[in-house]
Amino acid sequence: MLDLGRKNEILSVINSDVKFYQIIPPFIPITIRDRIRVSNKYKLLSCSLHKHLSSMISPSMCYLKDEAEYIKKYGNVIAENQNACRDSGDFHHNIVEVTKNINIEDWVFFSLSRDPIERFISGFSNICIDILNMEQRALCYNCGSNLSCFITTLYKDVLNYSKQNKIINYFIAAHFFPQNWMCDYFQYFSKFVIIPYSSNRKKKQQFLNDFKNVLIKANVPEESQNFIISKFNYTQTIHSTVNSASRQATVKMLYESPKLVEILYKIFYYDFILFNYSIPKQYLPKEPPAETLNEYRLK
């Protein structure tokens, strides 16, 4: 049950007069709690975002803190063990907490990116349909499974945050706000090795290869590399929405409304640009925004 103050904040966003023409700006800093994980042993830092295999990345980073201790304590399990090492001091809200005591030039930073539309569909189907149906938890601006209500409110919420830096729904922000706002990318974007992730099985091998290359770059021993990669290769997380009825319903609802798709491209425009995902011609802005991003663009 929402308290009255929070409910009024949400209603003020829902009822605000917005024309849905503005492209949401890039690199607005937002702190998502405990998303930065480190392995001091290998001088490896990850930013583990929701809907980006975080339930696998986080325990993998714990494993790389001390492989033998991890196996002794947790066994061979990686998936859904994201709270492993929570009390170790290696969970951080932001990178500044980490850089106080290290020389970042010696470290490897990595994160995952995801096609913004795929990420949105996964998030909406899991949170606004599955969780609502199973747990009766109204997490999606009280829109229920109404896609139009949710997307238009999300746009207003994101636009409002870009101007006021005020979160009205932390859970939604953590799962749906632009990826380029997170991970302290506004400050460290060029430092990160960013690995494209997709639930599309045809892209899985490339993801595994890219991830292994990060582990090699960090001088992780081959045995530890193989352990982690094997877990990613053969495990499906409980929050996966691949082939689910809710995902199929979300895709159908979304693509039956080109206007809603257009709003999503305005919200996530810079995710497409910065993480090298293509935008269909019909959704390209008539005049590209003024921001110059060449210095940030992935090579």
The main sheet orders its strands as: 3-1-2-4-5
Characterize the largest beta sheet: strand count, sense, and whether it forms a barrel: 5 strands, mixed
- Total domains: 1
Unreliable stretches:
none
Shape: globular
Give the end-to-end Cα distance, rounded to a whole number of Å. Answer: 46 Å
CA gyration radius, whole angstroms = 19 Å
Question: What is the helix/strand order?
Answer: HEEHHEHEHHHHEHHHHH
Tell me, rounded to a whole number, the average pLDDT.
Answer: 88
Number of helical segments?
13
Helix content: 40-55%
Q: What proportion of the residues form beta strands (DSSP E)?
A: 5-15%
Describe the structure in your own words.
The protein is α/β, with parallel strands linked by helices and 299 residues long. The chain has one domain. 45% of the residues lie in helices and 8% in strands. Strand 1 (36-39) and strand 2 (44-47) form a beta hairpin. The model has no long low-confidence stretch (mean pLDDT 88).
